[in-house]
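ingest -> validate -> predict -> emit
validate: passed (alphabet ok, no gaps, 119 aa)
predict: started
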Amino acid sequence: MSGHSDPNSVPHAKSQLEASAHRTPGWTTDTQLVREFDRPFHVGDAVRSAVTDAIEQWSELSETPPLYNFVDTDRLNGLFKTKATDDSGWLPSAEFQFQTCRVTVLYGPVIRVIIEHDP
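emit:
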């Protein structure tokens, strides 16, 4: 990963997560990484943390463009509002591409970040 100092770079996530809300256990398979975060938790921090874990899981992701070239994670924080979830059963979500991965963010009782890797 480059030494670029953009605030959306993945290494930025580690320092912010220490002061953020609780991250709950997730799971990983050969092609999928799922991380969950208790609300309140900044959506951008959740995405950066999950992508950091994905890069550790699939090292080839560290050799290509960084996360900030694909999505402005700081703007994800304002995408979902607290009232976005209700009893309708509809779960607000967002999807974007990160390198060879599809990233899905689900905003419900917990924030779930799903990264599907296509090797």
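The chain has a mean pLDDT of 81.
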